[in-house]
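quick one, two chains, predict together pls
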Amino acid sequence: MSTPLRLGIAGLGTVGVGTVRVLRDQADLIAARAGRPVEIVAVSARSKAKDRGIPLDGYAWEDDPVALASRTDINVFVELMGGSDGPAKAATEAALKAGKDVVTANKAMLAIHGQALALAAEKAGQVIRYEAAVAGGIPVIKALTEGLAGNGIARVLGVMNGSCNYILTRMQDAGLSYQEVFAEADALGYLEADPELDVGGIDAAHKLAILSAIAFGTRVDFDAIEIEGIGQVSIEDIDQAADMGFRIKLLGVSQMTGRGLEQRMAPCLVPATSPLGQLEGGTNMVVLEGDAVGQIVLRGAGAGEGPTASAVVADIIDLARGLRLPTFGQPAAGLKAARPARAAVPAPYYLRMTLVDKPGALAKIAAVLGDAGISIDRMRQYGHETTLAPVLIVTHRTTRTALDEALAAMDGTGVLAATPVALRIEDV
Amino acid sequence: MSTPLRLGIAGLGTVGVGTVRVLRDQADLIAARAGRPVEIVAVSARSKAKDRGIPLDGYAWEDDPVALASRTDINVFVELMGGSDGPAKAATEAALKAGKDVVTANKAMLAIHGQALALAAEKAGQVIRYEAAVAGGIPVIKALTEGLAGNGIARVLGVMNGSCNYILTRMQDAGLSYQEVFAEADALGYLEADPELDVGGIDAAHKLAILSAIAFGTRVDFDAIEIEGIGQVSIEDIDQAADMGFRIKLLGVSQMTGRGLEQRMAPCLVPATSPLGQLEGGTNMVVLEGDAVGQIVLRGAGAGEGPTASAVVADIIDLARGLRLPTFGQPAAGLKAARPARAAVPAPYYLRMTLVDKPGALAKIAAVLGDAGISIDRMRQYGHETTLAPVLIVTHRTTRTALDEALAAMDGTGVLAATPVALRIEDV
């Protein structure tokens, strides 16, 4: 095969520039591995005039990404603009209709319109590939869709937003508050233009929605994910969790249960000695659990020019090599709508309470937990100089429902000086 | 595509039985993901009578794997017999000649005959897949060949023999000698029939040879690997390395240098806080370093029925899906013969010496190191009750050549009470 694979690339931000750079710098290596040359034919971005540090004069320019997507001289439309709707979606749809395959890094678009786009791709006889959409340079889409294809998947979980993990580990290392580290991260350019996408857990939840669809053969269902960001995580909780042998991570978990598909993105405790607990800084980690393979852990850079470009180029090489799979690993029409299940899987919980320091206060809390059928694994009351007594409890495995009942009942005891913090401890 | 993919499976040991079991238990899931049914047509093993705990009466039986490989009613020959030569090689060659694709878990065969088999496969227009040959259930062949295909690979390294890692971590945890833990592991059935394949580093080196070929586009060259097993690792070194913040691992490293391809398999020190340093028990870990993606770490079970079967079945599903790649990711005729380079990359070293306890002994050692241009990063002399003084040195980065010179010169100082231990500290 010596016919070149011809690309149109829309979007020349960090990922687009990185992709162009890798395709240029490694052209010979890529041609050797792909079995044919890979050529950039045309590009599109908001401003033609902007200096992006790479020469673009060898490529045709299109102001309109939809026009780029429909060019007759390209085989593959590479969508690196981002945004769930607008030009990214319009151009992707145009590309499929025009008989082009699509490579994209767009997690939001796939999390929200993935099912419709997968159907459109199959109708057109084209494929959509999106390795860069989840966990940057880590080849997790490939590992799950292909490498673990013989496994019934039990659970998929991971740390999929490097900015949040940076913030949480920096809080712990420097003993700083969330607000202080947020300001630092923002100043360093570590956050999205809308930081809530990062710290609110939305970006990571987009990724989780995509992994769920592949893992469980279900239609991608972003809206069913329970999402809680890291804005409420306090340095007290980080320190006291550490004292009990845990780390706090923004953890995405997707799990098929007897009651339906549980998908959640929330700060959780994990054992400090587990691979997830040991993950520091801006790195990503995805854990895949299969019935045959057991637990596979993948770790690497989740963002940045090089890692994301690596994933985009891997998809392009796959297409050049003739690998053609349905978007979520199975024909989209056969994907089932999963019943969403909220916190169906029981877990131990970490509770931090501030009690008024009077006789019998702790006994009342213990009684409320006992009444809700929740037993205590470990409890610590810390020394204190005020009239408020900080108390930590690690419960045995319980349901979220029982815990919510207990928390409501605690409210009526009159011994709480503040709203308790309750964080799930995930088995990893 | 509803035409079934039809398999002939040779070898019904742990891996073969696991593969049959996964193909049966997950038949519907596999058909949905593969886009077509996958059927076992015929099997072959040494003894037809043996009870393997799975029903085989639905499959044709062949006493001769070569006859199985040539059957006209199969598309794929699944070689799970093992052994670099003999029936495994004969049947693989027969399968390719008869126009069958091959799936194998046979690291020894590929490490030794990989280039010839890859040429034969390409001549016949067939493909060989071997995900299970390296690191069991971890999809590392796929990650390297496809997921990181856009990267110039800088280095591949890892812990690729679970038995050795089990022995080393058990020595440390229980404070036992190599001999004691070896006997335990042997009794538990953790070792190959010829344990030297495991503890001598040969099995892991077979895997490294395969990874090197993919990573660097070179012909697989097992003979060029410097191999040292774990038999000489003492509990003293494990404890004292730990005391300096390190762990000892049987580490395979492959790296393209200005002087050629360096491939080594030897006990090395790694920082205790690194992912490799934290790897305990029988788990495998492979680290892939690419120029765009940075460092990707993959962790999972390196052996066992389920994990190995997971990898074999993934290869089968890839073939059912129509994925066809050259054996080592590029046409075999284009793979270059790499010049082997011995310890070309400088590194810090760990030295453990036992000195006779007399004035000036340590000064002599320090002088010898200085003369060889080796500077000392850290030194510890331990308290002692005998006339022998245990001394640990961590050097700054130096070459193996300089170190060997220094070790030779030390021999002439008359202050060594025993041969020094020198272990490389790998940057990870």
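The mean pLDDT of chain B is 95.
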